[in-house]
Amino acid sequence: MSPADRFHQIWEIATANFYDPARMGNWDAWLTKFDGQIRSEADALRCANEMLKSLNDPYTIVLGPQDPKDGVCWETGECVGVGIRLLTAYENVSVQTCKQNSSLTGASCRYPTIAGVIYNSPAAQANLKAGDKIVSIDDIDTAGKPMTVLMKALHGKHGSKVKLEILSGSSTQQSRSNVAQSAAILPGEKCRRGCRLP
To answer: What CATH number is given to the structural domain containing 163?
Structure first.
């Protein structure tokens, strides 16, 4: 499949599956917006994520294949996370809108904020809480990082560890946690390929 065809495939998948068609606006315009500009897989992913950002849903993203030496396994479906849901107030918005988003959601205008922790997940076992801000992931500063970068950094093979620097609630003191990556199965959710219970 050519990179341009990959972009069009992502457009079609989003068209058929996005949960709120009313938020899609002039979606058809995206189909031809990048004609002639997509020459590589990296171009296809960049353009697709720019398109998906217009939906204002931080969880609707495209994660591309990783370098095999990273041990991340997106294509096999065996990637797992740490058991948190994240919010960002800062992504794709003005400073004023960020402040409004922050006051409504509690998300930080600087760092990704934990919106929820899945019961009995590695994050729960590390005492992470809703409202905690992730200052760094494996010693890499998270300030202003897009959700795609954060998602890639927080996922890996079952049993691998990720080092998080956390700013708890309204505290000014930071703490460090080594959190295992494992599948967190929500009540009522079926385990898909690659899931392993902790």
So the answer is: 2.30.42.10
